[in-house]
Specification:
By secondary structure, the protein is an alpha+beta fold. Helix content is 30%, strand content 24%. It has a single domain, classed as Shew3726-like (Double Stranded RNA Binding Domain, 2-Layer Sandwich), CATH 3.30.160.140. InterPro entries: DUF1488 (IPR009962), Shew3726-like_sf (IPR036692).
């Protein structure tokens, strides 16, 4: 399995964040719920969802990759929610 995160990051109409990837040579969609991004900033300091994503991009993409490797991709996409986060 070959996975490449290609971006760019964008905000969806529902407030979630999308980050395109290529999985085994085919387009693949990764999305991150607005709630999951908010959970990464419990103090509520950062209000801009794109800035939240960028501040935690490596962690988020790593979690997305693990979900894909664990077989949680559906119809060419993986979705990350609050319960997927492993907060330190």
């Amino acid at each position: 399995m070959k996975l490449e995160f290609v971006g760019p990051v964008s905000v969806l109409t529902n407030g979630d964040v999308s980050y395109p990837a290529i999985l085994d040579g085919k387009p693949f969609k990764c999305s991150f719920s607005y709630e999951a991004l908010q959970d990464l900033d419990p103090e509520g300091i950062e209000k801009n969802v794109l800035q939240l994503f960028k501040a935690h991009q490596l962690k988020l993409l790593s979690i997305a990759e693990q979900k894909i490797l664990n077989g949680h991709a559906v119809d060419g996409a993986v979705h990350l929610f609050s319960h997927d986060l492993i907060l330190d």
